[in-house]
């Protein structure tokens, strides 16, 4: 086969050079190629800089906080989270779990709806070297227990909405320490099986920086577990190191040219790579503002973009794009002209 292919390629390139058509192609694509090269250099610049300084995700985030403490990091419904607020909340998480006796290298499972506290919890644990297993909120019974145990979790942090699914595997998780997070403080929901009320405990926890523990972090340290969907069996845990998180985040940031002045609409689940790393990482590592939504809604998409003045939309589609686009006419046209959608699993 190669004996026929190689002469064909030689003839093709000879014709291109002879006719000089390659110069035309080069000229027509030069602008695109130069942009791609510059952005690729930007990716490597940040990665090399972070490697030389032995940075971690929490360390980079600390530099972002120092530069813009009062800038908005996350919007969630009518709640506003500045970078300083995220930093202080994650410090409370770090100090509380240090006080609970957890050490660097321990693992804790997280089963919670998408909200800013979700990010603050795993960020705070990462500051002191504790790894977080991000559990798919759709899992129940055996897949749920498998995901918890696959990461060798010593404890589980869970929202009150998931008490019923945990009761289904209660005998299997009796050995785990449990921390219950009430989604709504006003609701008087009973605690699950010897669980501690995390909201109340955090109010008593210190927001002081954990600088000593932060400095012990390494670029190659694992700090998150993210799971496959389990369509071919039980979910499989992928280990996310600091450098892996950085590569995915800065890769999208540079190639799409996201700026720190952008407001990014992230309606993807925070337990997945797309929403939980690439999406929220634009705030944590790059200083952009991210809008978090519990679940994607086509009917509310453009309304939200108008409300938060979003310039980038990080979304996924499992339905016909035409259904999504019909809602454009309901929104301010100036918004979707400025809005750059980034999509995975796109269907036409």
Automatic annotation (TrEMBL):
- Looking at the Swiss-Prot or TrEMBL record, what is one Pfam family this protein matches? AMP-binding
* Single Gene Ontology MF annotation: long-chain fatty acid transmembrane transporter activity
Catalytic activity, as annotated? a very long-chain fatty acid + ATP + CoA = a very long-chain fatty acyl-CoA + AMP + diphosphate; tetracosanoate + ATP + CoA = tetracosanoyl-CoA + AMP + diphosphate
Q: Which GO terms describe its cellular component?
A: endoplasmic reticulum membrane; plasma membrane
Q: Where is the signal peptide?
A: none
Q: Which UniProt keywords apply?
A: ATP-binding, Ligase, Nucleotide-binding
Query: Which ranges carry the AMP-dependent synthetase/ligase domain?
Result: 63-315
What are its GO biological-process terms? Answer: long-chain fatty acid import into cell
Specify the superkingdom: Eukaryota
User: What family does the Swiss-Prot or TrEMBL record give for this protein?
Assistant: Belongs to the ATP-dependent AMP-binding enzyme family.
Q: What's the protein called, per UniProt?
A: Long-chain-fatty-acid--CoA ligase
> Whose protein is this, by species?
Oryctes borbonicus
């Amino acid at each position: 086969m190669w004996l026929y292919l190689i002469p064909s390629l030689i003839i093709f390139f000879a014709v291109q050079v002879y006719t000089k058509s390659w110069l035309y192609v080069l000229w027509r694509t030069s602008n695109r190629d130069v942009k791609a090269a510059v952005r690729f250099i930007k990716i490597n610049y940040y990665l090399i800089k972070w490697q030389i300084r032995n940075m971690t995700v929490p360390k980079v985030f600390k530099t972002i906080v120092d530069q813009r403490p009062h800038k908005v990091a996350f919007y969630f419904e009518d709640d506003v989270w500045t970078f300083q607020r995220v930093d202080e909340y994650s410090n409370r998480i770090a100090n509380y779990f240090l006080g609970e006796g957890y050490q660097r290298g321990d693992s804790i499972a997280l089963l919670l709806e998408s909200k800013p506290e979700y990010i603050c919890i795993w960020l705070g644990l990462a500051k002191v070297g504790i790894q977080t297993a991000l559990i798919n909120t759709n899992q129940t019974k055996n897949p749920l227990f498998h995901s918890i145990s696959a990461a060798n979790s010593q404890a589980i942090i869970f929202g009150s909405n998931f008490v019923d699914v945990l009761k289904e595997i209660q005998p299997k998780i009796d050995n785990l320490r449990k921390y219950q997070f009430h989604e709504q403080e006003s609701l008087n929901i009973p605690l699950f099986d010897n669980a501690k009320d995390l909201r109340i405990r955090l109010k008593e926890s210190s927001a002081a920086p954990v600088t000593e523990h932060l400095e012990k972090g390494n670029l190659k340290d694992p700090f998150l577990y993210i799971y496959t969907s389990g369509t071919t069996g039980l979910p499989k845990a992928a280990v996310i190191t600091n450098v892996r998180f950085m590569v995915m985040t800065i890769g999208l940031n540079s190639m799409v040219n996201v700026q720190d002045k952008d407001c990014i609409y992230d309606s993807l689940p925070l337990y997945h790579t797309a929403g939980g790393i690439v999406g929220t990482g634009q705030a944590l590592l790059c200083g952009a503002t991210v809008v978090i939504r519990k679940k994607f809604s086509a009917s509310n998409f453009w309304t939200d973009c108008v409300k938060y003045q979003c310039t980038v939309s990080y979304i996924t589609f499992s339905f016909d794009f035409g259904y999504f686009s019909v809602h454009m006419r309901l929104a301010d046209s100036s918004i979707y002209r400025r809005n750059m959608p980034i999509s995975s699993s796109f269907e036409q």
